[in-house]
């Protein structure tokens, strides 16, 4: 997880403008942990806020983010924070339920999305845009579109199918030392991987 988070932080950092703030939205899954560990690294160079949309976020990653200076905010504060970048660590491979976004996660996306669109905030998704099905590319009625998706291990089928290309934006594949392959990308899909980053074991 820390290797994935380090790569994520590097990719976000390369796109971070001077003085831009970062909002991390963290759910209960591994991608929430990746986002929180990345928040800890990014807090060394930027103002980072964390919005939890689950009571069960990764405890070690959350502690690391807090210790590094990331500020924990509620939904009202998140709406007022005017970030330049949002890291979407809400839900990834666990998005097979229907709807994928529920409860606090759904409420947060519904509340934040209009302002993010109005302000042109760049959303960077961890593994998958929240609300996108990892296998089919189908999307909920509530989904958080990304300008960039950082996906780990392999390109998931859903990024190349149906609404995947529309919602994922640019795709960066991070190969984390497993038996990774560019899985899921078929000629009929429209996903384009803009970069492949190798992270050793």
Considering the chains and any ligands shown, give keywords for the structure.
33% helix, alpha/beta, Rossmann fold, globular
Rg, rounded, reads: 15 Å
Report the sheet-strand fraction: 15-25%
What oligomeric arrangement do these chains adopt? single chain
> Helix tally?
7
Terminus-to-terminus distance: 11 Å
Spans of 5+ residues with little confidence (pLDDT < 50)? Answer: 179-189
**Corresponding CATH architecture:** 3-Layer(aba) Sandwich
Shape: globular
SSE pattern, N- to C-terminal: HEHEHEHEHEEHHEE
Question: What structural category arises from helix and sheet content?
Answer: alpha/beta
Structure description:
The chain is of the alpha/beta class and 201 residues long. The chain is built from 7 helices and 8 strands; from the N terminus they run αβαβαβαβαββααββ. It starts with a helix and ends with a strand. The chain is globular and about 40 Å long. The chain has a single domain, classed as YjeF N-terminal domain (Rossmann fold, 3-Layer(aba) Sandwich). The protein has an 8-stranded parallel sheet. Strand 4, helix 5 and strand 5 form a beta-alpha-beta unit. Its EC number is 5.1.99.6. It comes from Leucobacter chromiisoli. InterPro entries: YjeF_N_dom, YjeF_N_dom_sf.
């Amino acid at each position: 997880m820390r290797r994935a988070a380090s790569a994520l932080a590097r990719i976000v950092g390369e796109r971070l403008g001077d003085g831009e703030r970062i909002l991390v939205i963290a759910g209960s899954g591994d991608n929430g942990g990746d986002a929180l560990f990345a928040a800890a690294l990014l807090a060394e160079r930027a103002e980072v806020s964390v919005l939890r949309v689950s009571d069960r976020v990764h405890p070690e990653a959350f502690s690391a983010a807090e210790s590094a200076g990331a500020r924990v905010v509620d939904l009202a504060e998140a709406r007022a924070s005017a970030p330049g970048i949002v890291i979407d660590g809400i839900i990834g491979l666990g998005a097979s339920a229907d709807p994928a976004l529920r409860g606090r996660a759904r409420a947060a996306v519904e509340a934040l999305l209009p302002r993010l669109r109005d302000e042109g905030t760049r959303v960077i998704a961890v593994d998958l845009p929240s609300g996108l099905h990892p296998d089919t590319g189908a999307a909920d009625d509530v989904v958080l579109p990304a300008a960039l998706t950082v996906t780990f291990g392999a390109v998931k089928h859903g990024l190349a199918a149906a609404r995947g290309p529309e919602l994922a934006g640019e795709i960066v594949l991070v190969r984390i030392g497993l038996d990774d392959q560019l899985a899921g990308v078929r000629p009929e899909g429209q996903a384009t991987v803009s970069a492949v980053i190798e992270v050793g074991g």
